[in-house]
Amino acid sequence: MNSFIKKSGMALCAVSCLAGCSSAQQTPEEIQDTMEEKLNLTEQWDKVFPQSDRVNHTKVTFHNRYGITLAADLYIPKDVQGKKLPAIAVCGPFGAVKEQVSGLYAQQLAEYGYLTLAFDPSFTGESGGTPRNVASPDINTEDFCAAVDYLSTRDDVDPERIGILGVCGWGGFALNAAAVDTRIKATVAATMYDMSRVTANGYFDADDNPDARYALRSRLNAQRTEDYREGTYALAGGVVDPLPEDAPQFVKDYYAYYKTERGYHPRSLNSNAGWNVTSPLSLLNMPILTYIGEIRSAVLLVHGQKAHSLYFSQDAFKRLQGENKELLIVPGASHTDLYDNREKIPFEAIGQFFDRYL
């Protein structure tokens, strides 16, 4: 046994030495070139919001630990050369791209003095990963942690002052990332969805029973067979179009954002053909908020008083521990008001929260 341990230890040391020697001979740029896929990024300004003249904007890429290269917009306040800045990674909503809501939040926070990174999740937008249009509770949580990797290694970022902000479905993934990544010092979840819960239970937990989940699993697994047979992945469709007259108000609100000039973007899943039909399978089996009660860093949950999704934040807040956790309910605001309504989004309160903890 001792002989085996010694041999194994020597082998591990040898591998470690080789890895260390190899890394020592490469610059960070060379390492990045070998680890990241070359993405075809649009350099023109194609956001659904106007560009700020107070912020510098560039396109960047970074990779997660699954080897997927992510595309991002980097926003840096002007006239801050030579300073190490606090930084915030931003993503969401679920099915959106960085040219929509997350970019708006990132640019605004950059105006407040933060270096910010709005990124497309794996398999969507300009980011890499195949097949396209698929979600994963593990990989999408990892996307936030990978953004922290990237920010932590920038010369102009203070690695001890990094936060994240998730919108809608990525609010839930942000909480999940904060539960696992101790480098994250502050987290904001705006108009949050718990994607595991809504997938497994339906809206307002109306289908929270084994028979309903079994029926859903049966449909999704039948689609898996069909996808494999056809060699392609069926798409579920984005926001319903045309809009039925009897659609719930929150569906009408989604339509008003994603399907009109207000928020439409050609790379957005919600604006177009949507997620793969089988995407919910992983969400059904993986409750993402299991350990949020163990988050020790600061958390701010922001939600609209009139939002259909308010119960997600209210219930999550009950599970958070510590005096550095806050729930801010915005009077009169719907779910999508916190996408782009500058009169309703409490940017000042969000900025003050990050100022306090970063």
UniProtKB/TrEMBL annotation:
Keyword entries, A-Z: Hydrolase, Signal
InterPro entries membership: AB_hydrolase_fold, Polyketide_trans_af380, Xaa-Pro-like_dom
Keyword Signal recorded: yes
Span of domain Xaa-Pro dipeptidyl-peptidase-like: 67-332
A matching Pfam family: Peptidase_S15
Coiled-coil zones: none
MF terms (GO), sorted A to Z: hydrolase activity
Signal peptide from the UniProt entry: 1-24
UniProt key word Glycosyltransferase: no
Top-rank taxon, per record: Bacteria
UniProt name for this protein: Alpha/beta hydrolase
Species name: Candidatus Merdimorpha stercoravium
Lineage of producing organism: Bacteria, Pseudomonadati, Bacteroidota, Flavobacteriia, Flavobacteriales
